[in-house]
Amino acid sequence: MIRHSLNAFKRPRGSLVSRVPRRLHSVIGIDLGTTNSAVAIVESNEARILENEEGQRTTPSIVAFSKDAAGDKTLVGLPAKRQAAVNPQNTFFATKRLIGRKYEDDEIQKDLDNIPYKIVPHTNGDAWLSTSYGKSVSPSEIGGLILEKMKQVAEAHLSQDKLPIKHAVVTVPAYFNDSQRQATKNSGKLVGLEVLRVVNEPTAAALAYGIDKKQKDGVVAVFDLGGGTFDISILDIDEGVFEVRATNGNTHLGGEDFDILLLNYILDTFKAENNGLDILKDRVAVQRIREAAEKCKIELSHVKETEINIPFITSDKHIKIKITEDELDEMTLHLINKTIDPVKRCIRDADLKIKDIDEVLLVGGMTRMPKIRKVVEELFNKKPSTAVNPDEAVALGAAIQGAVLSGQIKNVVLLDVTPLSLGIETYGGIFSPLIPRNSAVPVKKEQVFSTAVDGQTGVEIRVFQGERSLVKDNKLIGNFKLSNIPIGPKGSPQIAVNFEIDADGIINVSATDKTPYPEDLENFGKKNTVSIQVSGETGLSEEEIKRILDESTANKEKDAEARKYYEHASRAEIICTDTDNAIIQFGDLMEQQEKDSIGNHLARIREKIEDIRSGRILHSPDILNNELNEMQQECLQYIQKVAMKQRDQAK
Amino acid sequence: MKLAAVLSVVFGILVAVQAAWSKEDYEIFSLNDKIQQDLGIDTTFYSWLELAQGPRATTKEITKAYRKKSRLLHPDKFAGATRKAKRDAEERFQRLSLVGNILRDHSLRKRYDYFYAKGFPTWKGTGYYYSKYRPGFVFTLFLLYLIFSGFHFVALKINRSQDYKRIAALKEQIKKQAWGGSLIPPMDGSDRKLLSDNGKTFVVKPDGSVYFVDGDSDDALVPLDENDINTAPGFKDSLLYKIPCHLWNLTLGRWAGKIDTNVVFENPKKEPEPEIKKKTKKTAQRGKKIELPNGKVVYSRPGRKN
After folding, report:
1. Pairwise CB contact (< 8 Å): A405 & B37
2. Are B131 and B17 in contact (CB under 8 A)?
3. C-alpha–C-alpha distance, residues B77 and B68, integer Å
4. Contact in structure between A631 and A601 (CB atoms under 8 Å)
């Protein structure tokens, strides 16, 4: 965010600050992942993951839209994932890889061919998404829908007196830049959830690890390879102070890249086996292969060999490919090796030797891959710790940070750093850093600007983030124009520009003018009004935010209703499972005809559950309940019969 | 010329020699200023971190102290506070982390310790200067005022005594000429008139006093007396007194009453002026009043015998 402000004078500050915190409502911690998201909360000083209505501890970060006679429908999480194969163009996954990025970015251009949905440039050049029926959505909006879903998951667990949840701590990859962080923060805003803090994922994981009193203090390295991003952070944990020494990473390296690699391998193999038959254009087929590739990758973390088996991929063709762990390792080695350089740079930035690192934490689903574990072990010369769950640590850490902010947890403080250098363009497109990377945040630097020619009334400042020496290789954060500078000889005006990075890693720029207006000007004696104009600002405009907010409130009732259906479906599923168990237990004593009858009931109900979950038909809860009651009564009858039989036998 | 030379020397002393501080030095100075503004003039980086051993503290101790302080001051601890308290906390923490950076960086700490030992220069509008090299504007002005007043006073004294001597010599010379080379006044006790080379006329009285004839008529006689010159000017003649008085007259004096800076000097040797007898006013004798036919009134000339 860019703040326009002009502080004419600096007031001396009092040394006493009121330290009576206003009691905040429960603050939830959300790990907004590329492929999966999780939500956690701290209750009685213990962080725990909250399960979604399907009983899962993580929720797929997938949002699907559909448009039919009944109107627009939005699915989030597992229901969206379930219908991905039939609606690939409108099922948006891994959108975190797009958030806060420009359409022209190399990473986006590379991804264009690998995904079944459409990426379009927005009016400000940002990468946006487009549905098959022409509705355009920003990646921030998708993030917002996922955050809202996680909020609902949390609300289902909390007692009435703590509702509604208004505040959250959301995690981002440590190596995210200003616009990516800003876009993530906006996601919450879009659904009316205030994101109190944006925490770096590896830092959050370290927090979840270090809060445990059983762990001893020391230097911890967090190796976080998730669905879309790679981060490495080195922290010093010391009596509740978590000080990040250095961080590094790659915001476009993760499980998705492994999937794409495997997907292309399968496609190529299929093409070779079928005389050059290309199914790339068949979006449904590609989506099925993608899902199979992900499944295969996960399986290979546990077994040495697996088979990809997709029947009827196109007309009468099937896919049946055997693949071993070694083959996958070899195929993905160049991706794995991409993690080595950032790790080395991070250790160097932290001013440490490898032997100084006391513990290595692995975070992110990809770190389950044995080859990656081996590479990490070789890198650090140490077996990685198994103290944290790679899928859950980040959300737990976010919840802990939330509790710190709400005052629930004291004596814990996170001292995080900015991952990228912040600087300005100087003569000839040279990048001149003002705040070096790995500076503790919040941080502020003041730079005094002046004019280069006599009578100049404006100065333009271009702010960049990155490590390269030419600005064109770094990310443009904003364009500031200082205008209304009082006319004077060159070099005489003194305009102090403050560059500030807050605890979220988000950049603020403000200007203070130190030169008064000269006596012979009509403005003499007035407060100097050098102003900052910002252009090239990224993200959503205020109107866009308002429109989305309006839409989301309008959808709220619809969503609440849809949730009711899902809840019924889940309840029905539990009863079905109970019935299954009953048949297993008493089946031997039942008549075949009785078992078939119950089986029929089960099949009918399961079909309805599936209808509701995929959003095809929303069966009324009454119908479902009638059906369930019928089945339960019938089942009860049979079980009573069985009981009678058993009694007779006992006699 | 002499004065200009002296002045340039004075300015040479007054104008500060700006030391070439590095960018890092400037950052240390401004941080030090802000911390002192916030927490009191005696605060040092070490005292803020509660390191009693000051510059002898080890890096490990500094890190420990910095973290301890961070735990107290981190903005997270103020998440529920008012907007202003949050802002203050954030700014204070920003300073704390800079202090942490400086004291934990070997070369930056060396710079800080140098200034810690030798004292910090202070901000003087355009840069950091050591105070002893640069007096303030008002002080400089005051010093200049004293120096100018001193010079002026000395010059005034010299001028006065020169004038005294010159007039005394002139008087002697004129007397001598008027009395025909003798020092004895003429026996007849008459005034002697003398026309000097430059066309001025002097009158020498028999008692030896010399008068300057101002104008053409003989009756405007100005006494020529060296004792009229005050060869020992006092405080009220000096600029030390006159400048403030003039300033007063120009400003507040307009309303509160001006101070008269004219100095009146009484010739100590002057004999009391002989009391001039007041001329009895002659009552004008008016002639006969005649009223003219046109209404005008005229008087006839008195004492005129037709």
Report:
1. no
2. no
3. 13
4. yes
Structural domains of chain B, count: 2
Residues B95 and B142 in one domain: no
Give one DSSP letter per residue of A38-101, joined into a string. Answer: EEEEEETTEEEEPP-TTS-SSEE-EEEEEEETTEEEEEESHHHHHTTTT-GGGEEE-GGGTTT-
Taking alpha carbons only, the member of A153, A232, A149, A205 closest to residue A395 is A205
B38: chain A residues, CB-CB within 8 Å: 12-13, 15
Q: What is the CATH number of the domain that holds B20?
A: 1.10.287.110
Number of neighbouring beta carbons within 10 Å of residue A232:
29
Write down all domains in chain A, each with its CATH number in brackets: 27-239+389-409 (3.30.420.40), 255-336 (3.90.640.10), 422-540 (2.60.34.10), 544-650 (1.20.1270)
Domain assignment of residue B221, yes or no:
yes
Domain identity same for B148 and B110: no
Nearest C-alpha neighbor of A208 from the set A445, A62, A387: A387
Residues in A lying within 8 Å of B, measured between beta carbons? 12-15, 17-24, 196-197, 238-241, 243, 401, 404-407, 411, 413-415, 439-444, 446, 500, 502-503
Examine residue B269 and state whether it is found in any structural domain, yes or no. Answer: no
Reported residue count of chain A is: 651
Distance separating alpha carbons of residues B306 and B291, to the nearest angstrom: 20
Rounded to a whole number of angstroms, the distance between the first and last alpha carbons of chain B is 77
Question: Between vectors from CA B176 to CA B169 and to CA B174, what angle results, nearest 5°?
Answer: 55
Judge: A413–B71 Cβ closer than 8 Å, yes or no. yes
A393-448: pLDDT as tens digits: 999 999 999 999 988 888 899 999 999 899 888 777 888 888 888 888 888 888 87
CB atoms within 10 A of CB B227: 15
Q: What is the bridge-based pairing of β-strands A359-363 and A218-225?
A: parallel
| Residue B27 or A33, more confident | A33
Query: Under 8 Å CB-to-CB from A237, ≥6 apart: which residues?
Result: A206, A210, A215, A217, A218, A219, A220, A243
Whether residue A269 contacts residue A289, with contact meaning beta carbons closer than 8 Å, is answered with no
**Separation CA B48–CA A509 (nearest Å):** 28
- Using CB atoms, which residue from B40, B71, B92 is nearest to A241? B71
User: With 50 as the cut, is the pLDDT of residue A583 above it?
Assistant: yes
Same domain, B204 and B112: no
User: How many CB atoms sit inside 10 A of residue B75's CB?
Assistant: 24
CB contact under 8 A, A19 and B78: yes
What pairing do the DSSP bridges indicate for beta strands A241-250 and A413-415?
parallel
Q: What is the DSSP letter of A225?
A: E
Per residue in A74-111, pLDDT (tens digit) is 899 999 998 888 888 999 999 999 998 989 988 899 88
Backbone angles phi, psi at A120, to 5 degrees: -130, 155
Q: What amino acid is encoded at A51 in this protein?
A: E
User: Do B202 and B93 share a structural domain?
Assistant: no
Residues B162, B204: one domain? yes
Domain that holds residue B205: 138-228
- How many Å apart are CA A514 and CA A225, to the nearest integer? 48
ipTM of this predicted structure: 0.70
